[in-house]
Amino acid sequence: MLVAGCAATSQTAEEAGRDDPYEQANRSVFAFNLGLDDYVLEPAAKALRTTPPQVQTALRNHVEWASMPKTAVNSALQGKGENTAITALSFAINSLTLGLVDLMEGEEKPEPEDFGQTLASAGIQEGPYLVAPFLGSHTGRSLVGWGVDFITNPYGQLTAGAPNSVRTASIPVSVTSIRATYFDAINDVKYNSLDPYARARSAYYQQRDGLLRNNLPAEDGDADFDSFFE
């Protein structure tokens, strides 16, 4: 939820011309997510940071590996053949270790892609800023994309034969690993900002803009996002 905080900035969504029509509701959800972070994620991440570096690296590798099917599918939908091939190859080879060991270290890394980026490539407008419970910062477009990725990600099918306890544990393990990776940056947003909500919102847009740099069409399309989102 707060990973975007690593892109520290004081620029507000209004200054960037972004749309936050549901700010009051968003702030309430943001406060709920901060409480979740205070009592669950931050303590868990702090405990993880006390483990040997090899353990932390293995978990980060697994999180990256688990996201590769999503990247491969969306790269293919966007016509990015090279990224599709690199991602598929990396996922297949690192499957030998369930992603815990990066057997492709030193090779070219795939560029992350999601369905929100695919929608951007199709000219769908980003829509309003939304803070979702547990999921954190999104635009309407990226939230729709997250839902599609969650439903269609083939990784869920590839692990269907694994014990339920293992698959259930993969989500909190991944979230805790990400929280530990960006521990200091996220805490800086939480504890050193006059308005953590505004700073997290601005940082989210900066982080998202970086991901979308190669996805947006040359000219804005005429797609009606409001109708699509409804």
Describe the secondary structure blueprint for this structure:
Blueprint: H1 23-48, H2 53-66, H3 68-77, H4 81-94, H5 115-121, E1 129-132, E2 136-139, H6 140-152, H7 154-158, H8 164-181, H9 183-191, H10 196-212, H11 225-229
Antiparallel strand pairs: 1-2
Helix pairs in contact: 1-8, 2-8, 3-4, 5-6
Structure overview:
This protein is mostly helical and 230 residues long. The chain contains 11 helices and 2 strands. The chain has helices at 23-48, 53-66, 68-77, 81-94, 115-121, 140-152, 154-158, 164-181, 183-191, 196-212, 225-229, and strands at 129-132, 136-139. The chain has a two-stranded antiparallel ribbon with strand order 1-2. A hairpin with a 3-residue loop joins β1 and β2. α1 (23-48) packs across α8, α3 packs antiparallel against α4 (81-94) and α5 (115-121) crosses α6 (140-152). It is globular and about 45 Å long. The two termini are 24 Å apart.
Write a short abstract of this structure.
The protein is mostly helical and 230 residues long. The protein has helices at 23-48, 53-66, 68-77, 81-94, 115-121, 140-152, 154-158, 164-181, 183-191, 196-212, 225-229, and strands spanning 129-132, 136-139. A two-stranded antiparallel ribbon has the order 1-2.
Distance between the termini: 24 Å
Overall pLDDT: 84
What is the molecular shape? globular
Provide a count of the helices.
11
Please name the defining characteristics of this protein:
230 residues; mainly alpha; disordered N terminus
